[in-house]
Protein backbone atom coordinates (compact mmCIF):
# COMPACT_ATOMS: atom_id res chain seq x y z
CA UNK A 1 0.00 0.00 0.00
CA UNK A 2 1.35 3.40 -1.06
CA UNK A 3 1.85 6.07 1.58
CA UNK A 4 0.58 9.61 1.23
CA UNK A 5 4.16 10.78 0.79
CA UNK A 6 4.85 8.36 -2.06
CA UNK A 7 1.62 9.40 -3.81
CA UNK A 8 2.67 13.05 -3.57
CA UNK A 9 6.10 12.17 -4.98
CA UNK A 10 4.53 10.37 -7.93
CA UNK A 11 2.19 13.31 -8.61
CA UNK A 12 5.09 15.75 -8.47
CA UNK A 13 7.11 13.58 -10.88
CA UNK A 14 4.21 13.41 -13.33
CA UNK A 15 3.72 17.17 -13.27
CA UNK A 16 7.44 17.73 -13.77
CA UNK A 17 7.45 15.39 -16.77
CA UNK A 18 4.57 17.32 -18.34
CA UNK A 19 6.41 20.61 -17.87
CA UNK A 20 9.58 19.20 -19.41
CA UNK A 21 7.88 17.95 -22.57
CA UNK A 22 5.59 20.97 -23.05
CA UNK A 23 7.16 23.45 -25.50
CA UNK A 24 7.52 27.02 -24.29
CA UNK A 25 6.57 29.65 -26.85
CA UNK A 26 8.72 32.66 -27.68
CA UNK A 27 6.07 34.90 -26.17
CA UNK A 28 6.26 32.98 -22.88
CA UNK A 29 10.04 32.87 -22.72
CA UNK A 30 11.08 36.35 -21.63
CA UNK A 31 14.51 35.55 -20.24
CA UNK A 32 16.23 36.70 -23.44
CA UNK A 33 14.77 40.23 -23.30
CA UNK A 34 17.47 42.84 -22.74
CA UNK A 35 17.03 46.39 -21.44
CA UNK A 36 19.12 49.40 -22.45
CA UNK A 37 20.22 52.43 -20.44
CA UNK A 38 16.91 54.31 -20.77
CA UNK A 39 14.67 51.31 -20.12
CA UNK A 40 13.91 50.26 -23.69
CA UNK A 41 13.48 46.50 -24.08
CA UNK A 42 14.85 44.46 -26.98
CA UNK A 43 14.53 40.87 -28.10
CA UNK A 44 17.15 39.02 -30.17
CA UNK A 45 15.74 37.79 -33.47
CA UNK A 46 16.27 34.11 -34.34
CA UNK A 47 18.45 34.91 -37.36
CA UNK A 48 21.01 36.38 -34.95
CA UNK A 49 21.52 39.52 -37.05
CA UNK A 50 19.73 42.13 -34.92
CA UNK A 51 17.58 42.69 -31.87
CA UNK A 52 14.16 44.29 -32.25
CA UNK A 53 12.41 46.70 -29.92
CA UNK A 54 9.79 44.82 -27.95
CA UNK A 55 7.58 47.91 -28.01
CA UNK A 56 7.07 50.99 -30.15
CA UNK A 57 9.08 53.98 -28.92
CA UNK A 58 7.07 55.72 -26.21
CA UNK A 59 6.65 59.42 -25.56
CA UNK A 60 8.63 59.03 -22.34
CA UNK A 61 11.57 57.36 -24.09
CA UNK A 62 11.55 59.93 -26.88
CA UNK A 63 11.74 62.79 -24.40
CA UNK A 64 14.51 61.06 -22.41
CA UNK A 65 16.70 61.16 -25.50
CA UNK A 66 15.63 64.62 -26.66
CA UNK A 67 15.78 66.43 -23.33
CA UNK A 68 14.29 69.91 -23.38
CA UNK A 69 12.37 69.45 -26.62
CA UNK A 70 8.62 69.71 -26.79
CA UNK A 71 6.70 66.44 -27.03
CA UNK A 72 5.58 66.33 -30.68
CA UNK A 73 2.69 63.91 -30.10
CA UNK A 74 -0.94 64.76 -30.80
CA UNK A 75 -2.00 62.60 -27.85
CA UNK A 76 0.25 64.34 -25.33
CA UNK A 77 0.96 63.61 -21.67
CA UNK A 78 0.52 59.88 -22.12
CA UNK A 79 4.04 58.73 -21.32
CA UNK A 80 3.55 55.08 -22.21
CA UNK A 81 1.71 55.74 -25.46
CA UNK A 82 3.77 55.57 -28.64
CA UNK A 83 5.28 58.86 -29.74
CA UNK A 84 3.67 60.08 -32.97
CA UNK A 85 3.75 63.16 -35.18
CA UNK A 86 7.36 62.24 -35.95
CA UNK A 87 8.93 62.31 -39.40
CA UNK A 88 11.27 59.70 -40.82
CA UNK A 89 14.09 62.18 -40.20
CA UNK A 90 12.99 62.54 -36.57
CA UNK A 91 13.07 58.76 -36.14
CA UNK A 92 16.56 58.50 -37.68
CA UNK A 93 17.79 61.37 -35.50
CA UNK A 94 16.42 59.60 -32.42
CA UNK A 95 18.38 56.46 -33.34
CA UNK A 96 21.57 58.50 -33.75
CA UNK A 97 21.08 60.36 -30.47
CA UNK A 98 20.31 57.12 -28.63
CA UNK A 99 23.44 55.51 -30.08
CA UNK A 100 25.48 58.51 -28.87
CA UNK A 101 24.43 58.19 -25.24
CA UNK A 102 27.58 57.41 -23.19
CA UNK A 103 26.24 54.12 -21.79
CA UNK A 104 25.21 52.91 -25.23
CA UNK A 105 28.52 53.87 -26.85
CA UNK A 106 30.42 52.13 -24.07
CA UNK A 107 28.35 48.98 -24.62
CA UNK A 108 28.95 49.12 -28.38
CA UNK A 109 25.26 49.42 -29.23
CA UNK A 110 24.09 51.05 -32.45
CA UNK A 111 20.42 51.85 -33.02
CA UNK A 112 18.66 52.29 -36.34
CA UNK A 113 15.32 51.82 -38.03
CA UNK A 114 14.68 48.24 -39.12
CA UNK A 115 14.69 47.67 -42.86
CA UNK A 116 11.43 46.69 -44.53
CA UNK A 117 12.61 43.08 -44.71
CA UNK A 118 13.63 43.03 -41.03
CA UNK A 119 10.35 44.58 -39.96
CA UNK A 120 8.23 42.05 -41.83
CA UNK A 121 10.45 39.16 -40.65
CA UNK A 122 9.99 40.28 -37.03
CA UNK A 123 6.26 40.90 -37.45
CA UNK A 124 5.48 37.57 -39.08
CA UNK A 125 7.58 35.73 -36.48
CA UNK A 126 7.99 32.61 -38.57
CA UNK A 127 4.36 32.50 -39.71
CA UNK A 128 3.03 32.65 -43.28
CA UNK A 129 -0.50 33.71 -42.42
CA UNK A 130 -2.16 37.07 -42.99
CA UNK A 131 -1.56 38.05 -39.39
CA UNK A 132 1.06 36.76 -36.97
CA UNK A 133 -1.73 34.96 -35.09
CA UNK A 134 -3.41 33.39 -38.15
CA UNK A 135 -5.87 34.41 -40.86
CA UNK A 136 -8.91 35.15 -38.71
CA UNK A 137 -9.42 38.93 -38.69
CA UNK A 138 -12.03 38.60 -35.94
CA UNK A 139 -9.17 37.95 -33.48
CA UNK A 140 -7.32 41.16 -34.35
CA UNK A 141 -8.73 42.97 -31.32
CA UNK A 142 -6.77 40.63 -29.05
CA UNK A 143 -3.50 41.78 -30.63
CA UNK A 144 -4.04 45.31 -31.93
CA UNK A 145 -5.55 48.72 -31.39
CA UNK A 146 -7.38 49.54 -34.62
CA UNK A 147 -10.49 51.35 -35.76
CA UNK A 148 -12.90 48.89 -34.12
CA UNK A 149 -11.52 49.23 -30.57
CA UNK A 150 -9.16 52.21 -30.34
CA UNK A 151 -11.67 54.93 -29.49
CA UNK A 152 -9.84 57.10 -32.08
CA UNK A 153 -6.65 57.34 -30.06
CA UNK A 154 -3.32 55.64 -29.44
CA UNK A 155 -2.96 53.46 -26.34
CA UNK A 156 -0.12 52.52 -23.96
CA UNK A 157 2.25 50.05 -25.60
CA UNK A 158 2.16 46.39 -24.65
CA UNK A 159 -1.49 46.11 -23.59
CA UNK A 160 -2.45 43.62 -26.28
CA UNK A 161 -1.11 40.11 -26.87
CA UNK A 162 2.38 39.85 -28.41
CA UNK A 163 3.28 37.99 -31.58
CA UNK A 164 4.97 34.55 -31.29
CA UNK A 165 8.38 36.18 -30.81
CA UNK A 166 7.23 38.40 -27.96
CA UNK A 167 6.88 41.69 -29.87
CA UNK A 168 3.91 43.92 -29.05
CA UNK A 169 1.81 46.20 -31.26
CA UNK A 170 3.29 44.95 -34.53
CA UNK A 171 -0.31 45.25 -35.71
CA UNK A 172 -2.03 48.58 -35.05
CA UNK A 173 -1.56 51.45 -32.57
CA UNK A 174 0.73 53.47 -34.90
CA UNK A 175 2.37 52.90 -38.24
CA UNK A 176 6.11 52.37 -37.88
CA UNK A 177 8.75 54.02 -40.05
CA UNK A 178 11.23 51.59 -41.61
CA UNK A 179 14.60 52.12 -43.22
CA UNK A 180 13.29 51.56 -46.72
CA UNK A 181 15.49 51.48 -49.79
CA UNK A 182 17.54 54.39 -48.44
CA UNK A 183 18.31 52.70 -45.15
CA UNK A 184 18.77 54.87 -42.07
CA UNK A 185 20.85 57.66 -43.54
CA UNK A 186 22.76 59.61 -40.92
CA UNK A 187 22.52 63.37 -40.58
CA UNK A 188 25.99 63.75 -42.14
CA UNK A 189 25.01 61.56 -45.08
CA UNK A 190 21.83 63.56 -45.65
CA UNK A 191 23.72 66.87 -45.50
CA UNK A 192 26.31 65.61 -47.97
CA UNK A 193 23.58 64.42 -50.32
CA UNK A 194 21.73 67.73 -50.16
CA UNK A 195 24.98 69.65 -50.77
CA UNK A 196 25.73 67.46 -53.78
CA UNK A 197 22.27 68.10 -55.22
CA UNK A 198 22.64 71.84 -54.67
CA UNK A 199 26.08 71.89 -56.31
CA UNK A 200 24.71 70.11 -59.38
CA UNK A 201 21.62 72.34 -59.37
CA UNK A 202 19.38 69.30 -59.34
CA UNK A 203 16.24 68.69 -57.35
CA UNK A 204 15.82 65.59 -55.26
CA UNK A 205 13.08 64.40 -57.60
CA UNK A 206 15.37 64.64 -60.64
CA UNK A 207 17.74 62.15 -59.03
CA UNK A 208 15.18 59.64 -57.74
CA UNK A 209 11.81 59.58 -56.00
CA UNK A 210 12.37 60.12 -52.28
CA UNK A 211 9.75 58.33 -50.29
CA UNK A 212 9.94 56.20 -47.18
CA UNK A 213 7.63 53.42 -46.09
CA UNK A 214 5.96 52.67 -42.81
CA UNK A 215 4.43 49.39 -41.76
CA UNK A 216 1.94 47.75 -39.45
CA UNK A 217 -1.29 49.73 -39.57
CA UNK A 218 -2.64 52.17 -37.00
CA UNK A 219 -5.39 52.89 -34.50
CA UNK A 220 -7.42 54.49 -37.31
CA UNK A 221 -7.18 51.60 -39.79
CA UNK A 222 -9.46 48.68 -40.51
CA UNK A 223 -8.30 45.07 -40.21
CA UNK A 224 -7.20 44.87 -43.85
CA UNK A 225 -4.54 47.54 -43.20
CA UNK A 226 -3.16 45.85 -40.08
CA UNK A 227 -1.63 42.69 -41.57
CA UNK A 228 1.95 41.49 -41.42
CA UNK A 229 2.68 43.12 -44.76
CA UNK A 230 0.56 46.26 -44.38
CA UNK A 231 2.11 49.55 -45.30
CA UNK A 232 0.68 53.03 -45.64
CA UNK A 233 -1.61 53.42 -48.63
CA UNK A 234 0.35 56.45 -49.85
CA UNK A 235 4.10 56.87 -50.07
CA UNK A 236 5.38 59.19 -47.38
CA UNK A 237 7.80 62.02 -47.82
CA UNK A 238 10.45 61.69 -45.08
CA UNK A 239 9.48 65.13 -43.72
CA UNK A 240 5.83 64.16 -43.26
CA UNK A 241 4.31 63.83 -39.79
CA UNK A 242 0.94 62.48 -38.68
CA UNK A 243 -0.89 61.33 -35.57
CA UNK A 244 -0.93 57.81 -37.04
CA UNK A 245 2.84 57.59 -37.43
CA UNK A 246 5.45 56.38 -34.94
CA UNK A 247 8.36 53.94 -34.99
CA UNK A 248 10.29 51.22 -33.18
CA UNK A 249 14.02 50.67 -33.37
CA UNK A 250 16.39 47.81 -34.07
CA UNK A 251 19.75 47.38 -32.34
CA UNK A 252 23.00 45.94 -33.64
CA UNK A 253 26.54 45.89 -32.36
CA UNK A 254 29.01 48.53 -33.55
CA UNK A 255 30.93 45.81 -35.41
CA UNK A 256 27.76 44.77 -37.27
CA UNK A 257 26.90 48.39 -38.07
CA UNK A 258 30.29 49.00 -39.68
CA UNK A 259 29.88 46.14 -42.16
Summarize the structure.
This protein is α+β, with helices and mostly antiparallel strands.
Describe the structure.
The protein has 259 residues and is α+β, with helices and mostly antiparallel strands. It has a single domain, classed as paralog of FGE (formylglycine-generating enzyme). The chain is built from eight helices and eight strands. The protein has helices at residues 4-21, 59-65, 88-99, 102-107, 116-124, 187-199, 204-207, 254-257; strands at residues 34-35, 41-44, 51-53, 109-112, 175-177, 214-215, 245-246, 250-253. The protein has a five-stranded antiparallel beta sheet. The chain has a three-stranded mixed beta sheet with strand order 6-5-7, with helices on one face. The longest helix is centred in the first third of the chain and has 18 residues, at 4-21. The protein is globular. The N and C termini lie far apart (69 Å). Mean pLDDT is 81; it is low at 9-29 and 204-209.
Question: Descriptors for this entry?
Answer:
globular, paralog of FGE (formylglycine-generating enzyme), three-stranded mixed sheet, 259 residues, alpha+beta
The CATH topology is: paralog of FGE (formylglycine-generating enzyme)
Uncertain runs: 9-29, 204-209
Counting structural domains, the number is 1
Measured on Cα atoms, how large is the radius of gyration?
21 Å
Q: Can you say what the CATH homologous superfamily is?
A: paralog of FGE (formylglycine-generating enzyme)
Q: In order across it, which strands form the biggest sheet?
A: 1-2-3-8-4
Give me the count of strands: 8
Give the fraction of residues assigned to helices. 25-40%
The DSSP helix count reads: 8
Distance between the termini: 69 Å
Q: In terms of structural class, how would the helical and strand content be classed?
A: alpha+beta
- Topology order in helix (H) and strand (E) letters: HEEEHHHEHEHHEEEH
CATH class: Alpha Beta
Average pLDDT score:
81
* CATH-derived architecture: Alpha-Beta Complex
Roughly what fraction of the amino acids lie in strands? 5-15%
User: What characterizes the major β-sheet?
Assistant: 5 strands, antiparallel
Amino acid sequence: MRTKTSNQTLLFSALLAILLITPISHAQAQDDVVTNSIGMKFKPMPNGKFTMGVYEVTQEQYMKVFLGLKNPSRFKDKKQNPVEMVSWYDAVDFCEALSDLPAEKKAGHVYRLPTEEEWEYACRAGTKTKYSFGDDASKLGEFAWYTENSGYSTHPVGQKKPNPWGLYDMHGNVYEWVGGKHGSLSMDQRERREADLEEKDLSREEIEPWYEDSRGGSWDDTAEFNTGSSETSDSNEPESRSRFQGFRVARVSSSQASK
